[in-house]
Structure formats: C-alpha cells, structure tokens
Amino acid sequence: MIRLDRLSAKQLFIGLVIMQIFIWTLVPTLTHTSLPLDVVREGLAWGHEWQWGYHKHPPLPSWLVEISFLLLGDVGPFLLSQLAIVTTFIFIFLLGREIFSEKEALIAVLLLVGVYYFSLPTAEFNHNIAQMPVWAAMIYFYYKALKSGQLRWWCLLGVSAGVGLLSKYTVLVLVCVMFFYALFSPTNRKIFGRLGPYLSLLVALLIVAPHLYWLVANDYLPLRYLSDRSGLIDSVWMRPLKSIDFLLAQVASHIPIILLLLAGGMFKHIWRMPGEQKIPVAVSDRNYLLALGLAPALIVSVIPLMGGSGLRSMWGAPMWSLSGLLLVMFLGTPSNSAKTNRFYWVALSLLVFFPIAYGLNSMLSGTYSKKPKRTAWPDREIAERMVNNWNSVADCGLNIVTSDGWLGGLIAIRAEDRPSVFLEGDFSIAPWITPERLNKEGSLIVWPSFKTGSAPDKYAKIPGYSYGGVETFRWTKSTGKAAPIVLEWGFVRGQCEKHADTQ
To answer: Residues in domain Glycosyltransferase RgtA/B/C/D-like (predicted)?
Structure first.
C-alpha cells in the first residue's frame, strides 16, 4: 500500500481538489440523460432571462448555471458545482492553517468528505450549493479581519457577503451570528468603533444594490413567496418536532465521518471533558469555531417554533464547513503514521465510493425503477416532438414555452432556438414575458397529462389558447417497469398564424 502519509499536506490537498472535481464532474455527465431538477428549473429556466432577481431567490446561482451551460453544455453545471465545493475546501484549509498546523488543516478538510452535503447532493448545483463557498469565504475573511484589523479583510468580507446575498437570503443568518459574536466578545466588541465593519457593510450594499432595486420594483416578489409559504404548521405541537427533525437530519448528515474517525483512531478522545481539546487552541479561536460552526443551524431550527413553515434538511448545506475543524479541535488527529495513512486511505475510498454509488443509482433508476429519476427523462425526444408540434401550427420559430420550470426548462434547453419559459403562465413570476410579447410571438403550452383532453385552467385562460394533443414518451433505458411519460400540449399562435399556403 502506498504510504500517503509521506506526502506533504499541500500535495494531498491538491490531490483532493483534483479528484473531487474530476470524479464528481465525470460521473453525472456519463450517467445522466437529462440535467437535474434544480439545474433546469431554477438555473437554466431562470438564468436565461438575466434578471436581477426571480420569484423565489436572488439571481447569481441562476446566472452561473446559464454561463456554465453556454460554455460547456451539460458538463458545465456539474463542473460548476464541484468548483463550489473545492472553493469551500480551500477556504477551510486556509482557516485551518491559521489555527492549527497544515497537516491538521488537511485532516479537517478530509473529514468533510464524510459529510453528506459535500458528496451526493453536489451533482445538482442549486442555491444551497452556491452558498457553501460563500459561507466558508465569509468565515475566513471575518477571522482575518478580527485578528488583523486590516481594511482589506473587511473589504473582502463585504464582497463575500454581497455575493452571498445575491445567492440566497439565508446568508443573513451567518451575518447575524457574526454580529452577535463580536457584540458579546469583550476582545472583539471594539470593532464597532472602527471603520472595518462599516466598510464591509458599504461594499456588500454596493454589490447587492441592483437586486435591492429589483426587489422594490417587483413588489418584493421573493419575500412574498416566502410569506405565502410560511404558517404552514397548523399544530403548535408539531412545531418542536419540525425543529428536532431538522437538527436530527443535520446530525445524520455527519454519519459517514464515523468511518474516518475510526480509521484514524480518533474516537478514543470522544469522551473528553467538555471544553477540553486534544490540540491546544486559543480560547478566542475555540469560541470562534463553536459560534460560527454551530449557531447558524441552531438559529434556523427555531423557525418552526415561531410559527413558520417546516424546514428542509438541505438548508443546512452551507452550515457545516467547520465540522472538520471542530472535530480536530476536540478529538485531535491520528496519533501515529500508520493511523494517519489509514485515515488518508479511508478518506480516499469515500471520495471514490460516493460518486460510484451515485452513478450506479442513477443508471439503475433509469433502467429498473418504476419511477425513474428526473435525470433519466428523455428530454431531447420531448423537445424535438414538441418543437415539431409547434411548427405544425405556427409559422414563427418557437420563442416561448408555457409550462412549469422543469418541463418547460427541459424543452427550452434542448430546442434549437432556446425559447423563454413562461412559468406557470403567470406574468407575475415570469416578468420577462409580457402580454404584448405573448401576443406577438405566441407560445407552445405543455403540461403533464391528466387525461382530460383539456388544459389546466391557468393555461386554458390564456387568450387565444387552443388544444393541441397528447404525446407519449418511453424511458430511454427502462426495462418497461416504469409507466410512460404522457404529456399534453396546446398553443397560442399570437401573430404566428399558420397560413394555408405554408401548411
């Protein structure tokens, strides 16, 4: 067996970065027929329109997905997601070197291989994945700003916070933790009398200003969306259960770390007295890691208790980049070279095992499952037939597809003209479509079949709507266990009337 422990920490870290990018980009590229749900629905369907905001989220992740797709096709979003993950690794490695040795920083990063959020979900780039490097960057820059007081670190903190706000509003949870950490820390409270924090705030506001303007101009659309989804927990008794369920999901996401701790012989320190670290760490550093590593999830878990909606476990994705550093602080690192080598090999094995398991699951789901995954949809065939249907009733190119974000997005990304998606036929959530544009360019309308021979009311009410027909699609790799996909379609010709001499 190759002695990985004889390599330097930098060499192993570079190897980790290369393997993470290569394996996790290659596997979904080879095993997916179509792109994942959030990549299509909230990435390409939105990002193609280059808005400063969308009805659920800020714009940056959607823009990045669109750019990656334009540059690299289907590979782009998979590569983008892994760049987000390795950027997170880089900032945690840098922070780890500030507090621990370089080897201990490496072990902390390798422990993240055993955190669920850094493996299986990363094949699907979305707003949660986009937040992960932003949170890690903010934590690193804030640490450097507190330690040095230099304005450049405060400026970089502002940049990362602004980028975070353009990614997802939950970054405000981290901002709040940072504020109260300094406020209740006698040694850090003095920063409020200095320029640094206010420079950070100014830089962040400058970056997010266009989005804030968009929010006002669009009647705070994402906030109204969030408000409409709140208050869904009717029973007071259910609220604590939702909080507990979220926290248990976060604990469960760390279960694979147990293999790494066992391999490194680090479990023998797990019963240390609270507050006693295996590796000596300054009290300020210990408090920093504890506050920023644990407080965000605890704060978010309180939301159901306040009468809000239930929580999704994936909201915890950006909150655990400090897990490895916390474990190193309290449990130490492997005590000898043999255990260190074994730890490295188990980390490497997990890094290879998770994507292979993911790829096999994707292939088997598409072949044998009664309900294949969305990544097994025959998207190109769907798009080809639907575009042909449109061409049979209209003499303009297809510029608008009216549907939900998933189905409309699938057709749009595979259609040659890359049409816009008119989300749910609702002008309020798809402001890039106006009644004037719809009347001029017309639209193909597609929906999952309800076998009624008519469109849902939201589509049937569109002026000029006509029913088209039904299309049935077989799963490309299925053995026949899965029911076929049945879609119905209609159209609004607008000014794209099919004249008799062109029929």
So the answer is: 56-214
Residue 447 β-bridge partners: 488
79-93, 129-143, 453-467, range with the lowest pLDDT: 453-467
Cα torsion angle, 385, 386, 389, 390, sign:
negative
Helix intervals (H) in 190-280: 196-217, 221-229, 238-252, 257-263
DSSP annotation of 219 reads T
What tokens appear for 40 in the block? 């299509």
Cβ contacts of 280-288, under 8 Å, gap ≥ 24: 281/99, 281/100, 281/329, 282/99, 284/185, 284/187, 285/99, 286/329, 287/181, 287/185, 288/143, 288/146, 288/181
Contact (CB, 8 A) for 135 and 292: no
**Residue 41 has what DSSP assignment?**
I
Q: Report the distance separating Cα 351 and Cα 16, nearest Å.
A: 8
User: Residues with Cβ < 8 Å from 458, sequence gap 6 or more?
Assistant: 424, 425, 426
Pairing assessment for the beta strands 400-403 and 420-423 based on DSSP bridges: parallel
Phi, psi of 491 (to 5 degrees): -160, 155
End-to-end Cα separation, the chain, in angstroms: 71
| Measured distance CA(389)–CA(378) in Å, rounded | 17
- pLDDT for the residue 276: 45
**274 has pLDDT over 50:** no
Structure tokens that stand for 426 in this block: 């609702």
- Contact (CB, 8 A) for 446 and 488: yes
CB atoms within 10 A of CB 395: 15
Q: In Å, how far are 57, 133, 163, 311 from 220, measured between CA atoms?
A: 11, 26, 19, 22
pLDDT band, residue 502 (cuts 50/70/90): very low
Helices and strands per DSSP (H, E), number in the chain: 20, 5
